[in-house]
């Protein structure tokens, strides 16, 4: 007996599985690739932001060191003026 697709009660599960399985597998692969791409882009943006923050922090530290040096000079000047005032007064 030869079966045809038109025969009632005959379902070709292999054909259904293949015809649904391949597009689902391709869609899943595309979804994984797209997700990976956007994660990579987010990682790159975070890396750029962190580099900016690191540069800002380095500049802040340099500015603080400069201010400390100026404060030390000012302290020495004030001490010299105080000493002079004690000697005069």
Structure description:
There is one protein chain. This protein is mostly helical. The chain is 85% helix and 0% strand. It has one helix and no strands. The protein is rod-shaped. The N and C termini lie far apart (128 Å). The model has no long low-confidence stretch (mean pLDDT 91).
Poorly predicted ranges: none
Question: Would you count the extended β strands for me?
Answer: 0
Structural class: mainly alpha
Over the alpha carbons, how many angstroms does the gyration radius reach? 38 Å
Main β-sheet description: none
What proportion of the residues form beta strands (DSSP E)? under 5%
Provide mean pLDDT, rounded: 91
Topology:
Layout: H1 13-88
Task: State the main characteristics.
89 residues, single chain, mainly alpha
Characterize this entry briefly.
This protein has one helix spanning 13-88.
């Amino acid at each position: 007996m030869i079966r045809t697709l038109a025969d009632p009660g005959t379902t070709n599960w292999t054909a259904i599985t293949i015809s649904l399985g391949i597009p689902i597998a391709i869609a899943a692969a595309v979804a994984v690739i797209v997700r990976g791409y956007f994660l990579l882009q987010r990682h790159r943006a975070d890396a750029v932001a962190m580099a900016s923050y690191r540069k800002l922090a380095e500049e802040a530290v340099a500015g603080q060191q400069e201010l400390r040096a100026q404060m030390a000079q000012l302290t020495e000047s004030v001490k010299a003026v105080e000493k002079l005032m004690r000697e005069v007064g």
